[in-house]
Write a structure and sequence with these properties.
This protein has four helices and eleven strands. The protein is α+β, with helices and mostly antiparallel strands. It folds into two domains: 89 residues, OB fold (Dihydrolipoamide Acetyltransferase, E2P), CATH 2.40.50; 82 residues, no CATH class. The strands form two sheets. Strands 1, 2, 3, 4, 5, 6, 7 and 8 form an eight-stranded mixed beta sheet that branches. A three-stranded antiparallel beta sheet has the order 9-10-11.
């Protein structure tokens, strides 16, 4: 989306992540314009689409994290080779916790937000962070892009405890052989 600010400068609004440039050391992002819609979208540095560099304003550097999604406003550089990001607000997502239980087959709790899913699955989890309840809770609690994080962690923890109780009740032999960390 584009609009003009009070100085009649063209301002482009989109979402993007920032990285540290290996060649210059500046904090940068990249955008590409869709030829059909004319909309600007944040892209990765290795994208095959034609892209322009977006340099983060020095005033914003202390307030931004690398590889985190931001809503940004940017203005064209004077030389026309790219953009300067003048506003960057972190994107936060609401968490939706879903529990799926089919006795003796499925014991799964998912926390979905944005394009991410954190899973607790004591029966089929391959990694410790999926199979172990506290590993999954820790993965969720480390996220910086979750709206109302304490409430989301509490809701996920309660759902995971309930699912773990069901699993241990219905499948006691299998539960005894796994490190599920029920507390």
């Amino acid at each position: 989306m584009t609009y003009s600010n009070a100085n009649n400068a063209l301002v482009v609004r989109t979402k993007m992540k920032f990285v540290k440039s290996a060649s210059t050391g500046f904090t940068v992002g990249f955008v590409s314009r869709n030829p059909k819609t004319g909309m600007w979208r944040g892209v990765r540095q290795d994208s095959t689409f034609p892209k322009k560099v977006c340099v983060l304003d020095k005033k914003l550097i202390p307030y931004t994290l690398l590889n985190r999604l931001y809503d940004v406003d940017m203005i064209p550089m004077r030389n026309g080779d790219g953009y300067v990001v003048i506003k960057a607000e972190p994107v936060v997502f609401a968490v939706k916790v879903n529990s799926t239980h089919v006795p003796r087959l499925i014991y799964r709790v998912e926390a979905k937000f944005g394009e991410k899913t954190i899973i607790f699955d004591p029966m089929e989890g391959q990694r410790a962070s999926v199979r172990n309840m506290w590993g999954a809770v820790e993965a969720l609690s480390k996220r910086t892009d979750v709206k109302d994080l304490p409430q989301a962690v509490e809701e996920f923890t309660n759902a995971a405890k309930d699912m773990l109780d069901l699993y241990e009740t219905e499948m006691p032999a299998q539960a005894a052989t796994k490190q599920l960390c029920h507390a």
